[in-house]
Amino acid sequence: MEAAKREARLAERRKRAGIPKRFLGATVQHQDLIDYLESFEGSAGRGLYIYGSVGRGKSYSAAALANAFVDAGYRTVFTMEWL
Q1: Which of 10, 34, 36, 80 has a Cα-to-Cα distance from 48 of 20 to 30 A?
Q2: Nearest-CA neighbor of 63 among 22, 30, 6?
Q3: How far is Cα of residue 77 from the mean position of the Cα atoms in its chain?
Q4: Phi, psi of 53 (to 5 degrees)
C-alpha cells in the first residue's frame, strides 16, 4: 500500500513538472545521461545541452532526466521549445 501511495505522489509531481503524458514512464538509458545524473549533486546545477536531428530521442531523454530528478526530490520543470 505504501508503495502505491509513493508512486501516486511521484506521478502527480511528474504531471505538475510538465512532463508530457507520453513520457511519464521514460527512463534514463544512455550512459552519458546516467553519468550526468550521478555527478549532478554538488555540481552547482551544471547544465546539459541535448542536440541531434529529428527523431533521435532528445525529448525522451530530457523527459527521462526530468523523471529521475522528480524521483530524487528535485523541483523540476519540463519544457520543449522548437527553434
Answers
A1: 10
A2: 22
A3: 9
A4: -75, 170
Angle between helices 58-71 and 2-16 (to 10 degrees): 130
In one letter, which amino acid is 11?
A: A
Contact at 8 Å (CB) between 76 and 37?
no
**What is the distance of C-alpha 61 from the center of its chain?**
7
> In the numeric block, which cell numbers belong to residue 14?
511528474
Q: 3-class DSSP state for residue 43?
A: coil
pTM of the full structure: 0.84
pLDDT digits (tens, 9 = 90+) for 49-72: 888 898 999 999 999 999 999 999
Q: Determine the Cα–Cα distance for residues 70 and 9; give it in Å rounded to an integer.
A: 10
Copy the grid coordinates of residue 48: 546539459
